[in-house]
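Readers of this paper often ask what the protein records in our data store actually look like. This encoding replaces a full spatial description with a residue-level series of whole-number codes. For reference, a complete record is included directly beneath this paragraph.
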Amino acid sequence: MSRSTTHSSDRHGTPRTPHAPDSDHGPEGSGARQSRDSRTAVTVFVALGANVVIALAKAVGGIFAGSPALLSEAAHSVADSLNEVFLLASLKRSRRAPDDQHPFGYGKERYFWALLAAVGIFVMGGCFSFFQGAEALSAGSSEDHSGYLVGLAVLGVALIAEGSSLVRALIQVRGHAREAGRGMATELRKGDDPTLRTVLAEDSTACLGVVFALLGMWLHMVTGQVVYEATASFLIGALLVYVAYRLARESRGRLIGEAIDPVQRRELRRFLETQPEIDTVTTLLTMRLGNGSTLVAARVDLVPGLDSEEVEEVLVRVKTAMAELWPHADQVFLDVTDASAKDRAKARADRQALEETAAAVEREDGGA
């Protein structure tokens, strides 16, 4: 006879633990999340201010010098500025409380706006840069390079400003990595804040794009060959298209529904399996709902002999313990059911596969 029942929880958790690097819910966790969001907002504002000033300077310098590389960089900065407006909107909208239409909250707003930012980088930055490179090749070289010194000076100032914004973003990434107990490289790959990663990607490509433009303009001025500057525009365009693709692919995965890190899934499964009343964890599903918010759905088979009141007590105790260990798991659903022999065999295979995947991730992170 089946004893299936579903018990859900939508807690707003408790303090952070070493096993919950992305948790920010609960009285203390909420404050931590707001503090992190405030730091991210400052980082975005710094990048926005730098990009607005730089975009104007590059546009004026590019028109004055007639430089395709400098105009490509102007388009790059305009795209970055608009994208940072998107990211600021995502910070505000993702903090809205759950409602009837969105019972799991608005955390995925960040992924949506990050996707729009990726589209903006591709269209306004990448495509315009390719256009400038092609136009430069078709127009040929100009003998008048009088405005190039001004253009080079503008790019030099831009490199300093973009570098300052990049340093600010890197400092915040390092802080997040320390909080999570992992290296910066791992935080960049697996961090849960798409807004910060987008700003970091924009600042990194901005610095590299300025270097390309500087080299292209200087070689054009020295050799008189426009091909160098056109090549710089193409390189800037290719760089922006690549970054846009990476950001869009990441946002797409999380909008569709992405599981949490395998190491965290392994910790969750181990915790459930070590509970004396749980005989088998037949299914464990997780999904990121936003920055520091995770859905956990598990189907478990309890040991025989428990009545309905005891089952309820077990579920409450298990979820209370999970709230203390993983505050980011703020939507928990436990389905208690009888497991067949086939279910048990599948559970063993799933556990083994998860152990191997988590071990591989740990080895990769250890080498990062």
User: Anything to note?
Assistant: The chain has two domains: 5-16+261-367, 26-256. The radius of gyration is 26 Å.
